[in-house]
TrEMBL record:
Organism: Ensifer adhaerens (Sinorhizobium morelense)
Protein's name in the database: Proline/glycine betaine ABC transporter permease
Keywords annotated in UniProt: Cell membrane, Membrane, Transmembrane, Transmembrane helix, Transport
Biological processes per GO annotation: choline transport; glycine betaine transport
Any GO CC annotation of this UniProt entry: ATP-binding cassette (ABC) transporter complex
Chain ranges of the ABC transmembrane type-1 domain: 92-271
PROSITE patterns registered for this protein in UniProt: ABC_TM1 (PS50928)
Similarity comment: Belongs to the binding-protein-dependent transport system permease family.
The keyword Heme is assigned to this record: no
Topological category with respect to the lipid bilayer: Multi-pass membrane protein
GO molecular function: amine transmembrane transporter activity; carnitine transmembrane transporter activity
Amino acid sequence: MFPDSLNLSIRGPVNDFIQALVSGYGWVFKAISAVILKAVLFIEWILRGLPWWVVILIFMALAWQSSKRWTLTVAVGVLLFFVGVLGLWDLTMQTLALMLMATIVSVVIGVPMGIFVAKSRTVRSITLPVLDVMQTMPSFVYLIPALMLFGLGKVPAILATIIYAVPPLIRLTDLGIRQVDHEVVEAATAFGGSPNQILFGVELPLATPTIMAGLNQTIMMALSMVVVASMIGARGLGEQVLNGIQTLDVGKGLEAGIGIVILAIVLDRITQGFGKSRTEDPRNG
């Protein structure tokens, strides 16, 4: 047995730190919570307010724009129609709203952070181990501080999802920027391009396929948090799965699980299509 005298617990300091945040900066977290809640409710209001066939047409248009393939476009329409047939349309729109909000915030954080990491060796050496911890930490752990700081509901679910889902976007943005051909960057520099012009005119466009792959992974990881986030008050398909577990209703859980899978397939194919179309664009070389 390991000697008790050598035990060192971080539980106390961590709990004290979180408690100090809650008592000292509670107003900050309330303000953040109010902004995020209004944004996600607005997205949810739009998605739930639109006629179902309009939402399906929008996704079919995105599928066509991303791939220019009728097979994918029709498949997206059929899959979303099947979600409605299963009686999961409203729950799916709630889940989609939460996931879109988490993805938008992840992009706002992840892409600039990835650029910063790519431009600085020091920042990269510090950030990559942190991202390793964020990706390997059990997802349930993120629910505890989110719950303490923001209470029950959609906001802590979104923030826990962001923490879990943003690392792939940071990593692949960093990778995409670093993989840009140095000769292209040198040519742009020789023609008098400023660092910002080179970043936005050369590096980011060439790194777009890799960044889109990171976005795809972020969306998939956000969807994987749907059921976990339902434990702290997030509505939607995850709550339906959780109810199925609690009541041992296999059919209910399976239906909601199918809805999550369909949503994942649709979003995965659309984002992959945008990444591939960028790669195959003849203007890219």
